[in-house]
Amino acid sequence: MRIGEIAALVGVTSRAVRHYHHIGLLPEPARRANGYRAYTVRDAVLLARIRRLTEIGLSLDEVRDVLADDAGRELVEVLGELDADLARQEREIRERRRVLAALLEAPLTSEGPLSPGLAALLEGAPVTGSPAAAKDREHLVLLDAAGGGAGAEVYAALRPLAEDPGVLELYGRLDELAGAGADDPRIAPLAADLADAVPDDVLAVIPQGEPAATGVGRALLDDYPPAQREVVRRVMETLAERVRGRTS
């Protein structure tokens, strides 16, 4: 194979192949009498392994270390590993297409595309000018688009709560804390009321864990001003405790 052929086979550019040669990551193959490089199957296997390792986030120096550890392995073993990796990629592509199909079936909005579950949840929510409600909506859309949303079961369980006009009063109280400090006396009663408003059937389908402790949880909390952040943090902790109480 010539350089363009091996690059196309593995799914990289010829420029990338030359770069790997330049830094010593991919050994130079033998050359034909006309000066062209002649790549073998083993070269293609090694190049594919480099591509895979870089795709999962390894630096080129880290890739070099991995390849050094793999030196001397049988070709059939490496080929089998690459075949398993291709099978994994096929499964991931099928899952992405399934999610895409669901998104295409959902109503398209200025926020979308949204998953069908979230689209139905937001569609039934009462109209409000509450900034806190708008922020909640933004967070749900972000998590949904990133694939870290609550899921169809949670969205369905949340619909009665989202459609309850009484929730607007809670959002109004949260809005009133926009300029307050983290020691405001209104924080504790509002956090308790918000946590109490979450029905038990939602707790039955939400994942276990400490959402405020995750990177995403911290980022969402940091999007709030101090008093509101403390309210949301307390609500998240209370719900996590309730989930643990149901499963213990």
From TrEMBL:
Keyword hit for Transcription: no
DNA-binding as UniProt keyword: yes
PROSITE patterns: HTH_MERR_2 (PS50937)
Entry coiled-coil feature ranges: 79-106
Domain HTH merR-type: 1-69
Record-linked Gene3D superfamilies: 1.10.1660.10
Gene Ontology MF terms: DNA binding; DNA-binding transcription factor activity
Keywords: Coiled coil, DNA-binding
Protein name per the record: MerR family transcriptional regulator
Gene source species: Streptomyces microflavus
Organism ancestry: Bacteria, Bacillati, Actinomycetota, Actinomycetes, Kitasatosporales
